[in-house]
Specification:
Low-confidence stretches: 441-453, 670-674, 687-697
Largest sheet: 8 strands, antiparallel
Mean pLDDT: 88
Strand content: 15-25%
Structural class: alpha+beta
Number of strands: 27
CATH topology of the largest domain: Topoisomerase I, domain 2
CATH superfamily of the largest domain: Topoisomerase I, domain 2
Distance between the termini: 74 Å
Helix content: 25-40%
Radius of gyration: 31 Å
Shape: globular
CATH class of the largest domain: Mainly Alpha
Oligomer: single chain
Number of domains: 6
Length: 712
């Protein structure tokens, strides 16, 4: 008898098949002497749609809501039905006596495998492959230590409850809002409170009233110190008071009343989990959470350089201790060699800050694998993310950073001045980051007043007399709270228990794609649609507390501390309440994207809709469905290749023109007339491919620019 191995993706299946010696490659599986390896293409089976229960639900109607079937059904997803049939056929083969689930070792991976098993009626024994990296070594060790499938029943129940809860809440509230207000309005148990947090911040910003203030500092010759009021605030909102203080203090002598020296020790940061890595990648490189997840998945699956990505733990397990030196050896190349090699000459200092079994649930922190890295084979994105992971891993074995902190208080004429300074004694783990001693402050906690920097102070003694040589005044304005970036939003989602490390990026993308949220630079802004949507949903769905309680209950179910049915009964009751609230609402919705164009078929004002291919004009009338491409803004610029007028567009980097026929793109300077230097270089490269090898650079540039001038 053979064992059927079910992987989540073809790429993973190919690696497993290679390790297991399955050389007979077929369209939908690979077979060997002992194993048959197939794959799921993600979900092959999902929850049935409302119309699968009753055909009348194919049309959305408010009176049909809520839709809450007594027993949920499964259905084969149409887009992957061919692969499902292939998997079902393999499951029914007489020579297959056992199934090995090799989908992602997480809640969602367990769910997709169990749904396929349920749909196909699998009744034979099954086991679970639970590994944290895709290296040959990890796969071999995983198959040597397969776990009974029943061990993961509770994880499956948790995943099933999550899916059914999302179906009942998301589907019913989305249909209710859309039917009630005549617009495509989407809501859900995680996406709506996430949008709610962004709207709360938006209200704080719009309600903020800025005030002018001044900061006063005294120059004591060898150092400067800032004035502080009794409460510690250095801002002065009365200009007359600032002038009076300056008059009172200039030229006066004061005393150093306090010099406090202390040795500070800063331990290395913890290893990365997914959310922390997404935060750092957003801060340092501007990566979206989804972009980080995608790049990380390639490093895990394709390059096999990092361990399982979708983890919520920042610690390692004790059984990994013996592998740590091997992992350090694998990354001791290029810029990491001088950082890692000294560690390999002595025993590694493995502490509870690195290894702690009690703080690892399903998967340990993200660290490098034993696979040897070839840096030149990584894309720029992969290289940046890998650099973050490797440096964080290396710094785990470096000592704490040590420095002396000095805080000085000076009293002049009854007024207090403060200054702080630091002296680095041992850079410790910060050597891995070039010795940089600055810390990443949470942008949400940053106040209006600038933080005191790490300055070099002269040797000062308590009781020493100092003279105010001059007073310096700096003006400023109070600033509103900053808008969320993806990094700070991920922090809040994690803090409030919204979603999981595996789903948070998708939630943000869903809000962007549904036109309720938009990216402007690195910050997130609610759209006109998003602002109205928050006002239309029930208050309990807007705040994160309810969803956080649900997520905590799902975790309890996964641990065997909670039961599925009471949880789902609570969700059913909530769905009824939320739908009733929408039905009884007296609120109004006004589309924020109404264009100046009218539908040629019914006369209704068309709505402007953003898509990946540009803007579309859509008729909102239920019985119409008219759609056309949005109005094009043609520039006076002509394509240097086909000489047709180019379309004027706007992107993150500013205005640009694009030829829709040839695909040639040119960025514009601020006056929208001239291409910039980078584009000039691109043109030279473009024309150099068309000219002979003997053409000079000057001739190429001249030809390129002449072509452009002709096109104007």
């Amino acid at each position: 008898m053979k064992a059927l191995v079910l992987a989540e993706k073809p790429s993973v299946a190919r690696e497993i098949a290679r390790v297991l010696g399955c050389g007979n490659k077929q369209k939908s599986y690979m077979e060997g002497p002992k194993y048959i390896v197939t794959w799921a293409l993600g979900h092959l089976v999902g929850l049935a749609e409302p119309e699968d229960y009753n055909s009348k639900y194919a049309s959305w109607a408010l009176e049909d809501l809520p839709i809450l079937p007594d027993k949920t059904k499964l259905k084969v997803l149409r887009e992957t039905s061919q692969q499902y049939k292939a998997v079902q056929h393999l499951m029914n083969r007489q020579d297959v006596g056992e199934l090995i689930i090799a989908t992602d070792a997480a809640r969602e991976g367990e769910l997709l495998a169990r749904w396929i098993m349920n749909m196909a009626g699998w009744r034979k024994p099954f086991k679970r492959l639970w590994i944290s990296s895709q290296t040959d070594k990890a796969i071999k060790e995983g198959f040597a230590a397969l776990r009974p499938g029943k061990d993961f029943d509770r994880l499956y129940e948790s995943a099933r409850c999550r899916a059914e809860a999302d179906w009942m809440i998301g589907l019913n509230v989305t249909r209710a809002l859309t039917c009630k207000f005549g617009a495509p309005l989407s809501a859900g148990r995680v996406q709506t409170p996430t949008l709610g947090m962004i709207m709360d911040r938006e209200n704080e910003i719009t309600g903020f009233r800025s005030q002018e203030y001044e900061l006063l500092s005294a120059d004591f010759g060898s150092f400067q110190a800032g004035w502080r009021a009794a409460g510690g605030d250095g801002r002065i909102f009365d200009k007359a008071k600032t002038a009076a203080l300056k008059e009172k203090l200039t030229g006066r002598t004061g005393k150093v009343v306090k010099v406090h020296k202390s040795e500070k020790s800063e331990p290395h940061p913890l290893a990365y989990d997914l959310t922390e890595l997404q935060r750092d990648a957003n801060k340092k490189f501007g990566f979206s959470a989804k972009q980080t997840s995608s790049v990380l998945q390639r490093l895990y699956e394709q390059h096999k350089l990092v361990t399982y990505p979708r983890t919520d733990s920042r610690y390692l397990t004790a059984d990994m201790t013996g592998t740590l030196k091997e992992r350090l050896e694998s990354v001791a190349v290029g810029p990491y060699a001088p950082l890692a090699r000294p560690l390999l000459r002595k025993p590694l200092p493995v502490t509870k800050r690195i290894v702690d079994d009690s703080k690892v649930s399903d998967h340990h922190a993200i660290i490098p694998t034993e696979e040897t890295v070839l840096l030149n084979q990584l894309s720029p994105e992969e290289r940046k993310l890998y650099d973050l992971i490797v440096r964080r891993f290396i710094c785990l074995f470096y000592p704490a950073a040590r420095y002396d902190a000095v805080a000085v208080t000076v009293n002049v004429e009854g007024e207090s001045f403060y200054i702080k300074g630091t002296t680095v004694k041992d850079a410790g783990w910060r050597e891995v980051y070039g010795g940089d001693m600055s810390s990443d402050e949470d942008e949400d906690d940053a106040g209006d007043e600038p933080a005191a920097g790490s300055v070099k102070l002269p040797e000062l003694r308590e009781g020493e007399s100092v003279k105010v040589e001059r007073c310096l005044i700096r003006s400023g304005r109070t600033q509103p709270p900053k808008r969320y970036t993806e990094a700070s939003l991920l922090t809040q989602m994690e803090k409030h228990g919204l979603g999981t490390p595996a789903t948070r990026a998708d939630i943000i993308e869903k809000l962007v794609n549904s036109d309720t949220l938009e990216r402007q630079g690195n910050s997130l802004h609610p759209t006109g649609k998003g602002k109205q949507l928050i006002g239309l949903v029930a208050a309990q769905l807007r705040t994160p507390e309810l969803t956080a309680r649900w997520e905590a209950e799902l975790e309890r179910i996964a641990k065997g501390q909670g039961r599925p049915e009471p949880f789902l009964q609570g969700i059913r009751g909530m769905a009824k309440e939320l739908v009733a609230g929408v039905k009884n609402s007296s609120a109004e919705y006004k589309p924020h994207n109404v264009s100046n164009s009218h539908c040629p078929e019914c006369g209704t004002r068309l709505l402007e809709k953003k898509t990946k291919r540009g803007k579309l004009l859509v008729c909102p009338a239920d019985d119409c469905g008219y759609t056309r491409a949005g109005e094009k803004r043609l520039s006076n610029r002509r394509c240097p290749q086909c000489h047709k007028k180019m379309e004027l567009k706007e992107g993150k980097a500013g205005m640009f023109v694009q030829c829709l026929g040839c695909g040639i793109t040119e960025t514009l300077d601020k006056d929208h007339k001239h291409i910039n230097k980078r584009e000039q270089q691109k043109l030279v490269q473009q024309y150099s491919k068309q000219e002979s090898a003997g053409t000079s650079l000057g001739d190429l540039l001249k030809a390129a620019m002449e072509a452009k001038e002709k096109g104007k």
